[in-house]
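Section 5.1 Outputs to date
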Amino acid sequence: MLRARSKARNGIQVIARAAQVLRALEGVANGLSLGEIASRVGLPRSTVQRIVNALADEQLVMAASPTARVRLGPGLLRLAANAKLEIADIARPHIRALSEQLRETVDLSVLDGTEAVFIDHVVAPRRLRLVSAIGVHFPLHCTANGKAFLATFDDDHVRRVLGPRLRAYTRHTITALARLIRELQAARRAGVAYDREEHTEGISAVGCVVKDEWGNMLAVSVPMPTTRFREAEQKVARALLDCRRNIEAVLKVRRDSEH
């Protein structure tokens, strides 16, 4: 009996450590060396080597360079993509209701390395409306959905993902990393992030992130002409947070029913 319990505990510990390694590689497009992973997760390099070898056998990590750096592999990306699509299916009736309530376009996007990618939208029933094509990639530091994704990470992770230089897309783009981090801290407190003509002149947006129990994320964002946004900013933010609560309530019911 004691041996069985000890074996079970060891198995749980291995899974937890593997999860630590995978989280360390999240959002690091160029991968990490074994030493860098060991430093981030606080494990011996030899232990990290064994875990990485096991994850590589399952295609959950893969080589990122000839110098033994590793990054997330196609097996994990396929699992994550399926999970994200499932959340998107759950979210769609709620973003449709949000679009009808606000009479504005509502977008869904996923995080893809250092960019956000639009995967779905509900288009506003207005003559003057904003529509982005499905599959288009957007930078993280100057978009509402991108900032919402960044706000889910700690400040050190944000610094690693973005690097010291931020590209200016408009005269309103935040290019100082310290200032952006302060804004992300405010976004964490408020639950929403803003783009005030930082990516495109004349267009502003507000966005938030929805997470499931496995950590899969979708961003819901509402872009609109700045002339309308200035008057409706707080109303849109409140409606967006209500939409997120509704989606997360459905995800919780589904989770509880499966346990």
